[in-house]
Amino acid sequence: SAPRHIRVLQDTYPTDDYTNITPTISSKLSRRLHAQEGHPITTLRSLIESHFPDFAHLSSLSPIVTPHQNFDSLSFPADHPGRAKTDSYYINKNAMLRTHTSAHEVEVFAKGTERWLLTADVYRRDEIDASHYPVFHQMEGAKIFGTDASSIDQIEQESQRLERQLALSNIDIEDVRHISETNPAQTSHDVRSSEVIAKNLKFCLNSLMYKLFAGIAGAAKSDPLRVRWIEAYFPFTGPSYEVEVFFRGKWLEILGCGVVLQSTLDRAGVPNKMGWAFGLGLERIAMILYSIPDIRLFWSEDPRFLSQFTHGKFSTFKPYSKYPASYRDVSFWKPSSDMHDNDLYDVVRDVAGDLVEDVAIIDRFTHPKTQRHSLTVRVVYRSFDRSLVNEEVNLLQSRVVSCLQKLGVEIR
Ligand code: PHE
Questions:
Q1: CB of 100 closer than 6 A to ligand 1?
Q2: Any ligand 1 atom below 6 A from CB of 34
Q3: How much is the ipTM here?
Q4: Whole-prediction pTM
Q5: Which ligand 1 atom is the nearest neighbour of the CA of 101?
Q6: Is the minimum distance from the CB of 102 to ligand 1 under 6 angstroms?
Q7: What's the angle, vertex CA 125, arms to CA 241 and CA 301, rounded to 5?
C-alpha cells in the first residue's frame, strides 16, 4: 500500500488520493539545469536576460507551489483540464509541482517588482518521445505600467524606438490585430491603453525573436526571419497571442503571451497598473540553437555532452555515436476503472528513467461484445552512454509489465 508520508526536497508531506509524484520526477527537483554554468539551458537564459537588462532576473523560486498559486490566482476555472491528476504532478491536494512559471505572477508583482524575468523548471505529465519530457524549463517575462496619460505616452515612445530598430532588421512579421472580436480587451480596460500595451509587447518580443533566431531560421543568411502572431487563449491574459517562428519548413510555437488579467494585478495589490506577460519554453529553442536532437540530452551527466558547451557560446552539438535501440511490445486490456495514457507513460519512466526513448501506442481497439479496451504499446529503450544488453531490456520490460498489472491491466 502507498506510504503515508513522502519526502520531497527538504520536506515531508502527508500523501492523499491526489499523490502521483514519482521518484523519477522527485529526483529532478534538485538538478536546477538553468543555474548550471555552461549548460545550454543556462546560456540561453543569459542571452534572453541580456535582452531585458533593466528587468529583475529571478531563478530561485521553489518548484513546489499550491494549486491556488498555479491555477486559482490566475483565474483558471474550477474545471480546467490542467488541474487533473492525469495532467499535473501532485504531492498531495494542497501541494503540486508548478506546471508553468505563471504560477509566480501574483507573488512577484506583490513584491512591487514591475519588470521581471523568471526562469524555472516546470513539470507536466506527458507523452514520451524525442521532444517531450515531463520536466522542462520556462522563462516568464512581465512588465507593468502606470495608466495615466503620461505613462501611456512613455510606452508609446519606447514602442516607436523598438519599431525603428526592427525596421532595420531582416525580419518578416505576420501580425494579427491587437484586439478583435475573438480576442477582445478586458471589459475593465480602456481599449486604447490595452492596445498600447499589446503593441509594446509585440515589439519587445519581435526584437527578442530576432536576437535569438536571426541567421538560424532561414535557409540562407539572406532569408528573412519569419515570425507569425496568432490569436490565442489563456485564462490569465486578454487579449492573448502565440508567437511562432518559421524553421526548416515548419511553423514552431515559441511562446504564449498577452495583456495581464486585471484580477491578477488586483490580487497582487497593484490594481492601478496594467501590463503584459509572456512565457516561453527554453528546451525547444535550445534544441534549435544547438542542434540538440533529443530532449533527454539536457539531463545527461555524460562529459561527452556537457564538455561540448561553454558558457555564453552557441555551438553546434556533435552527436556522439548512438548505441543501438531495442524495443518491446506489450498488449493488454485496460482496467474497467479508466486508465489515462499518462499513467502508462509514468510507469515506463519510473521503471526505465532516461533509458526509455519513446513510448508509442501502436494499436487500440474496443472489443465489440465486451466493450473492453485493448492497447498495444511499443517501448523503445536506448541508453546514451552504453549498449543495453538483452537481459537488461527484458528485465526493464518485465518490470513495466508488472507495474501495469498493479494498475489493473490484464496482459493479453
Ligand atoms: N503560462 C503559459 C504556458 O505555459 C504561457 C503564458 C505566460 C501565456 C504568460 C500568457 C502569459 O503555456
A1: yes
A2: no
A3: 0.99
A4: 0.92
A5: 1
A6: yes
A7: 100
